[in-house]
Every structure is written in structure tokens, then in C-alpha cells.
Design goal:
GO terms for molecular function: oxidoreductase activity. Keywords: NADP, Oxidoreductase. By secondary structure, this protein is an alpha/beta fold. The mean pLDDT is 95. A hairpin with a 4-residue loop joins strand 8 and strand 9.
Amino acid sequence: MTFNRIAVYGHRGWASSAIVNALAASGAPIKVLYRPSSDVSELPPSVTTICVDVEDQKALVSALQDIDIVISLVGHEGVRRQLAFVKAIPKTSVKLFVPSDLGFRVDEQGQQIPVFKNKDEVEKAAKDADIPTTLIWPGCMAESTLSIGLLGVDYTGNRIIFTGDSRYQPMNTCTRKYVAAAYADIFASTPPSQLQDRAIGLSELKATGQQIYEALRKKHGAEPQTFIHSLEKVDTEIGKELERGSPLAAVWWFRRVWGAGQIVPNVGRDIWEMDGYHKVTLDELLVEGKIEPYREAPPQLIGAVSATFH
């Protein structure tokens, strides 16, 4: 088996740390590029590390000389820093760039939200520079979607918001473990020429709002507290939060996309399947309680999200 030489930028996040560990376990040679302020002490011993300021083009080009694939896993605050890779990659032998995404196709309304606008800017810049790219779209992350209320599902509080037609529309979701395993399966040894210029969807579990409702009822032995939000209400809330510059704009937008039945279509048709991988079921996650905890979110955000359940 021939492995790709992979550079990863962004390794400490909730999802990115799991992805880096899975890539390292695959046997592919992994190099983590990190900032001076970043901690690399918990990385697997097989991972090579190099401290680099990505704005230093000479240093970045040097760090990428022996790399086939660059995978960026930066969080929201680092999205625009990826433009440094767009400038550097044409000066190297890198065959594929994977910008940080981990979502799904964003519509015109979503493009008004700064983080999605910034991601789109990076992706367009890479295309304009003729850099082969691959996007990974898992839809929604199960741990955040089902536990802290981002899409109107409060697993621990036994509450659910039906937005628009979300009671009957499927949500596409993946656990962190599934996404990490998929990154390793996709990028460790697949020739970059087979991956370039693709938006690859991941699909571990699809569930409608009603199916989630029933799982909550079985888990708690009581009917979930239920709220109904129209798409018109959600559009109004998106507008208000955009004016305030609030991260809640994205929360309301995610709910709208589900309520309009667009999450599954926006993951696309190019779905990557892993042979022999056990996909988790809704009952395993919610009824049996196998859902892993999500990262510790700021109390202000948790409070603001909780306040939308009315």
C-alpha cells in the first residue's frame, strides 16, 4: 500500500484531535503544522511536528515541500488563515488541499453568516489558484446536534423544537468517531487524483424529527416537551442575530435548513462508504445513551441556545 504524505493544520479542536489520531493510526506519514502558542504534547509519537507561522510564506512553502495532501481543520477563528495555504501551495508539489468545512453546502442565506462567508472565500480562492481541492460534508455532528440544542434537540432536557417541516424531514448526521475514521479511510492511501475537485458527503445516520422525538420518549419514559417554530419566525430571528453579529444566526439557520428539508440534499450524492464500519443507530445514541459528550461550550452560548426553547 502506498500512503499519502499528509500535512494537517489545526489539531487541538474537538473534531480535529480525533481526526489527527485516526490519520496517525492509519499508517500514513502525518506532519502537524502548529503555531508557537499551540500545544503538541498530546499528539501520537508517530506524528512529525513543525512550528510555523503560516503568514511567513517562505517558511510555509518549505514545510510543505514533501507533502501530497494538506488538510486544514482550523476552527471558526482560523478560517481566513487558510488563505496563506492558497498562496503557498502553488509553489510546492502538493497535490490536494482540503479546506476546513465539516458541514454541508451553504445557500445564499447562509452566506450572510460570517464564518460561512469566510469558508466560501477560501474555497473560491483555491479554485481561482487552480489548486485541486476536496471538501468533506458530514451534515451535522451528532454530539452537538443531539445534546446542546443547536438544531432544537435537547437530549438531556427531553425537549425538541419542530422547525418548519423538521418533524418529517431527515437530518443527516455523523458522530465524531465516524468522521475521524472517514478522514483516515479517504486520505491515507487514496490517490489524490481520485479525490480532487470533489465534495464528499458522509452519512452515518439519517433521522426525522419525529424519530428523534420517539427516541427521546423511550429514553426518558415521558413525552418530550415540544415547541413549534415556523420558517417565517426563523427567518426573522436570523435577520435579528445577523444585525447583532451574534453566533445564534448560525443556530437559527441550521434549524431552517433542516425544516426546509435541505440537509440531506446539501450533503450531496457523492457519499463515501467505509466497508465493514458499524454505523451507530439512533437508539444506540439516545435510548442506550452511547452518545459522547460534546466539547465544553461557553455558558453564554448554552444559555442563549436554551432560551430559544419557547
